[in-house]
Structure formats: structure tokens, C-alpha cells
From TrEMBL:
It comes from the Eukaryota. It catalyses: a phosphate monoester + H2O = an alcohol + phosphate. This is acid phosphatase. It is an enzyme of class 3 (hydrolase).
Amino acid sequence: MYSKYLDGVEVKAVSTDFNRTKDSLYLVLNRLFDDKDNFDLSHPLKQFHFEVAPVQNSRLLSFPIIFCPRYQEIYKQYKASEEGRRLFKKYAEHFPYIYEHTGVNITNIVQLVPIFETIKSNKEWGIKTPTWAKPVYQYLMSAVEDFYMSMVAWPGLNKLFGGVLLNEILRNIDTNMETKRLFLYSAHDLNVVGLLGAMELHWAHIPYYTACIIIELYQIGHDPYVKVLYQEDYSKGFKEMRLPECDVLCPLEKFKKTVDRSIPGDNDYC
């Protein structure tokens, strides 16, 4: 698809240190540089070099709610705020029911995430939803959606989360576009949430396995513009996103100004 536009030297690719994200990146790179109209998965994949960013010690594609003490402290402040207390309280009534059927002593909605993800994944593999879970399936999904929203609720959280990746993207636009045409990052649903949150584009939803954000750079006349596209699920395709106070095609400097409060500074350390 891009084989005539790109060569391997013009692409920088980064993955987290999980087999599933590395394999996804291999597939994307193979498809990008395959000349055939019909990509054949039965053929051996070509090997491409890409960087690996471990989530434990690289902030670029990390999970700060697990690995960043400063983020954890700000998130604790959010949970203690009126907005946070209201959010977490609304799900408490079903905690005893979940405990009764799972044996997990639920004290906050974070603990509902692996329960919902397990049920959801099993369902996708054709395993029936347990009888006990059917009455609370929508409740669990709503709790996970709100938990994701809470992770990007404050600018201080975004600076330590998706703002790190967004800062890298903006730096690439400013300094690397002469030598690179494409930057690929293969990561997780939480990273999608973080990047959307840093651009103030996230809403209450759970990104699907094929969720993807594309940030395109355009040159119109003498002026650079940015367009953001988001695919929530491959079946829905990409849709153009509109940042606050921006058109779909947003002047680069206005884009930077819009997201500035999510960009980490020198003192925004973990």
C-alpha cells in the first residue's frame, strides 16, 4: 500500500514488550510494504527492525497507574475529589453481588476491569457468559468505561499518561519529518485512552482490539496542518476527530496550543 511512498529507512516503529503488540506491528509493517493487492498470511512474514519500549521502565507507552508513583498520587487526589467520589460511589451497590459470585472483595471499580475483560474475551471466543454475570454485564462495561474516563480526567493525569506520547509525536513533527515519513506505535487500549485524553477527544467507551489513532501532517500552501482520525473498531472504520476550538484540519500551531496543558514539562516526572 505504501511501498511506493515509503521505504524502511523512512519509518520508525515502536512496540511495547508484549508478544501481541509486537506481532501486530509485524503484520502492519508487512502489509505496508507488500506490493500485492491480496496480502497472503500463509506466506512467512518479513522481519522488520523496530524499537521495544518496556512498559515497566519506559514512559512512552507505559501504564502510569501501575508504574508511575506521581500519577498514582494525582489519581488518588482525583478519587478523593467530589467528582471522583461521585463516580466511584455510583457502582458500589453491586460490589457485594460481584464478591458473592467471584470471591473477589471489590472495594473500587479498578477491580472490575479484569472481571469484565475476562467475561468479554470469553464471550468473543464463543464461551457463554456465566448466568450470574448476565444481569450485571452492562453495569460492568459501564464501570470500565468510567474508569477509563477517570484516568484522563485531569490535566495533571494526562501529562503523565498520553501527554508523554503526544509530546514525542509533536517533537517528531518538529524535528524528524525530513528523514521520517511515518511513526508507528503498537500498544494497548489504555494507551489509546491516554492519547485521546491528552487531545481532549476521549469519551466513555472501551477501545476494541483494532482501535487505532492516526495523526496526519499536511502542508497546505506554506502552512502545516494536523488531522486526527480514530478507528474505535475495524467494523466502524475511521472517523475524523475535531479538537476543541479546532476544525478537522487544525493549523499545527493551534493544535499545539490546544493540547499544551497535556504536554509534560521538565518537572512532570514519575
